[in-house]
Each structure stands twice: as structure tokens, then as C-alpha cells.
Design a protein that fits this description.
Distance between the termini: 22 Å
Number of strands: 7
Strand content: 5-15%
CATH topology: L-fuculose-1-phosphate Aldolase
Structural class: alpha+beta
CATH superfamily: Class II aldolase/adducin N-terminal domain
Strand order of the largest sheet: 3-2-1-4-7-6-5
CATH architecture: 3-Layer(aba) Sandwich
């Protein structure tokens, strides 16, 4: 299981890098079943050339388990969310282009696509900072609340899911939604789904086999 999860995290990060959702920074983690620890990509890992061996195990204080490789500086972001959200098993911190443009001007990413309904309400963290300490990470986790997606002003975004596939797909959906919202404004005012539409469409499209379909599409490009 551990080796499979390491490869899955490496694949998710590689797919996000190729989709320009992360760059030379960005990290993703998941809980390691049967332990209180998590798996996360090493801080020194090259995001454009990731492999299973770049995924390391750390405890909830960020200490390496069974090795001396250092995790990303922002590991507190992941730990704080896991502590606050027992339902979350995977966390992605991304550095996307389009959705970061929106957060930098204080404009929300709206549900202008059907896939956006899967994200639910997109939250916003108003501080611009590296989430590299416990107090700031706790603030971020509180701002995320029970939701699945949050943007970080002029910084990036965080998506969470029941597993690696869901957290990955939400990161892809956020960036694609922001891109289409930006482009649609060039020709008019894009239609945003109503709360009722978000609820009904989201429930329909958040099915595991549909999330897997997105994963398979990007995985075939590796």
C-alpha cells in the first residue's frame, strides 16, 4: 500500500506540473493508512521529474520517519487540515496561474462550468504568506472549514479530498474554471450556477468513476 500511494502521489504531482497547476513549488500529501503519519513530496524534489522515491513519510510534527529528508516548508498547511478534518485523506497545495490572478485582485472564482459544481463554494484566505508555521496553518484550516477548495491571495490554492484522485481533480477543476471565467469575460458576463444548481449538479458529477475519468485522461499523458 505504501509504495502504491507513493507512486500515486508522484503521478498526481507530475500531472499537475504538466497541466501548469504547480510549478517548481507545490506539494501534495495523503494519510498513510494504519499510521498517524502522512506521505508528502520532499522539499527538494524536482516537480518536473518526480518519482515514488521523492515521496517521504513524516509525522504530524513534520519530522521525517525512517529517513532524514526534509519535507516542504509549508508542511504545517497539510498537518493543520488533517487535524481539523478527519474526513480529508489528501491535500494539494498548488500554484496555478488563472485562479491566482483572481485571488490577487480579490475576485472570487465562480461556478461558471458544470464541473465547478463539484468543488462547492470556493473559499478565500485573505493573507498573503507562506503557510510555514502552525498558527498560520490553523488559520488557513479554519478559513477552509468544511469545504474542499480555498484560494490563497496572490499565492495559490489548496484542495482537499477523500483520496488523492479527488484532491487532484479539484485542483484541475479550479484552474479550468478560472481560465474559462477569465476568457468568458472578454465577450460578456459569464453565467454562474445558482446554489441549487451547484448542489444538484455537484452531487451528480462528484461520482468516483467520473473523478477517475479525469485522472485517467491526465495520467495517459505521462
Amino acid at each position: 500500500m505504501s509504495n502504491e500511494l507513493r507512486q500515486k502521489l508522484a503521478d498526481a504531482l507530475s500531472m499537475m506540473e504538466r497541466a501548469e497547476v504547480i510549478d517548481f513549488n507545490g506539494h501534495m500529501s495523503c494519510r498513510l493508512p494504519g499510521t498517524p503519519n502522512i506521505l508528502i513530496n520532499a522539499g527538494k524534489s524536482v516537480r518536473s521529474d518526480l518519482h515514488a522515491e521523492d515521496i517521504i513519510e513524516i509525522d504530524m510534527d513534520g519530522k521525517p520517519v525512517g529517513h532524514e529528508v526534509v519535507p516542504p516548508m509549508e508542511f504545517p498547511l497539510h498537518v493543520a487540515i488533517y487535524r481539523a478534518r478527519p474526513d480529508v485523506n489528501a491535500v494539494a497545495h498548488t500554484h496555478p496561474l488563472w485562479s491566482t490572478l483572481f485571488s490577487s485582485v480579490g475576485e472570487p472564482v465562480r461556478p461558471v462550468t458544470m464541473q465547478a459544481a463539484v468543488m462547492g463554494p470556493v473559499q478565500a484566505f485573505q493573507k498573503t504568506a507562506s503557510i510555514n508555521n502552525a498558527p498560520l496553518a490553523a488559520e488557513l484550516a479554519a478559513a477552509l472549514g468544511p469545504h474542499r477548495v480555498i484560494t490563497l491571495r496572490s499565492h495559490g490554492a489548496v484542495t482537499v479530498g477523500a483520496d488523492v484522485v479527488e484532491a487532484f481533480v479539484l485542483a484541475i477543476y479550479l484552474e479550468e474554471t478560472a481560465r474559462r471565467q477569465y476568457l468568458a469575460r472578454a465577450i460578456g458576463t459569464p453565467y454562474a450556477l445558482t446554489p441549487d444548481e451547484v448542489d444538484s449538479i455537484g452531487k451528480n458529477l462528484r461520482r468516483p468513476h467520473l473523478l477517475q475519468k479525469v485522472w485517467d485522461y491526465h495520467h495517459a499523458k505521462l
